[in-house]
Design a protein that fits this description.
This protein is an alpha+beta fold and 277 residues long. It has ten helices and seven strands. The strands form two sheets. The chain has a four-stranded antiparallel β-sheet with strand order 1-2-4-3. A three-stranded antiparallel β-sheet has the order 5-6-7. Helix 1 packs parallel to helix 4 and helix 8 runs antiparallel to helix 9.
């Protein structure tokens, strides 16, 4: 590439699948540093086995950038070779920052772009960088994302719910304050097939793992757990107004056990009371 910096026309147009994917990946695994004046840089460091993806980023970027490799000792391996993509252009960095890639620490600040974007590809970028695709220890297909961002966790649940038909309730882990969003079995198959379509830009090892999920079939002796029906504010109001488990169960079409537990949680403050009750 030439050393001159061309106009950023269409650079990071998030309606373009490759840019949407790239932006999601950068939000999750990129590091945007701001220096004095025009100085600063964007870097992404990956295991050298994934260097091909960094070269794709380099091709997609109409500014000078570099891909370098280094080998060093780490706490996890005596010899570790990594690859780093570096981009210094102020114009490019400004564009990325305006789209929602923060400078400095960003784990809780990131979220879906406010402008129009290719959601399918954006989420694949997020999963490639911060998620996992494969089989559990028990041999079940899974797709998961671990994130500190509430906005990102909520959006994944919303989008994946449309694809899989499965709802997920969100709660941070008490240990590390992170959200762990998990889809398994047929839901994982549907989501992986949707996100990792033929010819998409992705980490090839994640694409291969996603493709492998399609071969799984549910064992004949493995029961299908019923979908969890979430409580709504209107149902909570009915439950509190009736103040009778049997009557509420009949009115709401729920079991008495479910109504009893929900009423107890409302009364003890474990869940907030519905507004305007």
């Amino acid at each position: 590439m030439a050393d001159c910096e061309p106009s950023a026309h269409r650079f990071m147009d998030l309606t373009v699948p490759e840019y949407a994917y790239m932006f999601g990946f950068l939000q999750a695994d990129g590091h945007l540093q701001q220096g004095v004046g025009r100085k600063g840089k964007l870097t992404v460091e990956l295991n050298a086995r994934d260097i091909d993806l960094l070269r794709e980023f380099q091709k997609l970027t109409p500014y000078y950038s570099s891909v370098t490799e280094r080998t060093r000792s780490t706490n996890f391996a005596e010899v570790h070779t990594s690859a780093t993509w570096s981009l210094c252009s102020l114009e490019a960095r400004t564009r990325l920052n305006e789209l929602g890639l923060p400078y400095g620490r960003k784990s809780q600040a990131i979220g879906p772009p406010s402008s129009q974007f290719a959601a399918q590809d954006y989420l694949r970028g997020i999963i490639d960088a911060d998620g996992s695709v494969g089989y559990t220890g028990k041999g079940l297909p899974f797709v998961s994302l671990t994130t500190a961002s509430t906005a990102l966790a909520v959006y994944l649940c919303f989008y994946a719910g449309k694809i899989t038909g499965m709802e997920r309730s969100l709660k941070r882990n008490a240990r590390d304050g992170l959200y762990n969003v998990l889809y398994t079995t047929e839901s994982a198959q549907k989501l992986a097939s949707h996100l990792y379509y033929k010819g998409c830009l992705s980490l090839q090892r994640k694409k291969a793992a996603a493709d492998s999920l399609a071969t799984w079939t549910r064992p004949t002796d493995m029961r299908i757990a019923p979908d969890r029906r979430r409580w709504t504010a209107s149902e909570d109001r009915v439950l509190l107004q009736l103040n009778n488990v049997a009557a509420a169960a009949s009115e709401l079409g729920r079991t008495e056990k479910s109504c009893n537990i929900r009423l107890w949680r409302l009364r003890t403050g474990q869940i907030p009371l519905p507004a305007d009750r």
